Amino acid sequence: MKGLRISIVLLLAALIPAAPPVSAAKRELVQILQQVNNLQVQMQILQQTIDRQAAVMQTLIEQTTEGVRAMQTEMSELRLMTQQNLASSAARIETIATQIEILNASLEEAKARIGRIHDGMVETHNILQTINTTSETDQSRLEGAAGVPSATTLYETAYRDFASGQYQLAIQEFQEYLHYHQNTDLASNAQYYIGDCYYNQGNFRQAVEEYNRAIERYPTGNKLASAQLKKAFALLELKQRQAGVRELRSLISRFPRASESDLARARLEQLGITLTGGL
Fold first, then answer.
1. What are phi and psi of 47, to 5 degrees?
2. Which residues have a Cβ under 8 Å from the Cβ of 197 and sit 6 or more positions away?
3. Tens digit of pLDDT for each residue in 33-57?
4. What domain count does the chain have?
5. Alpha carbon 177 to chain centroid distance?
6. CATH number, domain containing residue 229
7. Structural contact between residues 259 and 226, judged by C-beta atoms closer than 8 angstroms
8. Which residue range(s) make up the domain with 237?
9. Distance between CA 126 and CA 70 in Å, rounded?
10. Residues 88-131: pLDDT tens digits?
């Protein structure tokens, strides 16, 4: 700033006409010095203004940077919350599916108990009738037939082991039930629970095969929708996304009002898939 002042004074001095009267020269010099002084003051004011604006700009830059960092942090937290919510939704879906299975199983167990009472009455009646009407040969045949386990006993034993988590034992017992009683009303249930045993053990590939047997062998069974739903879940666990989604959509189309279809819709939504959209 000092160098600029000297340069201006020298420039003005060079521009002053030579040999003016002394009094006139003094006045002009005073005026020039005043102008120079005014110019310096204005330049100082301008410099101060520039400094203030620079400080304001620096503050704005810092505030903007902090805002961007805060926004990035919020986005990261939002992304994490979204991931946690998706995981929680998937867990709730599995929980609901399990609760529905438990309720269905309780109903089936009640039906099985009623069937057991009925079977006991029928067996008692048959025994009494046999005692009164059969010959010794017929009696021996009855004793041979008595080696076949009761359908109700087999099913209740298998289901009790399934409910207590003894899946390998339950598989053997359900298979024994199907060996002797493959055409009963509970046969489709037994086949379905074999699939569930493998599913709960994490053997999803074998579970898919067992669910397929439940679907193909018992097309009118009361576990048809449940078998297709769990088959879809097992396929998704095997990373076969396209096949799993196809089964979920098929289930919704075949049984639109079933509770299993509600679970299928929730799982598709969790996967980010609409019923009309693609994979």
1. -65, -40
2. 162, 167, 168, 170, 171, 174
3. 888 778 778 777 878 876 787 677 7
4. 1
5. 37
6. 1.25.40.10
7. no
8. 148-270
9. 82
10. 766 677 767 666 765 665 566 555 555 545 444 544 444 344 33
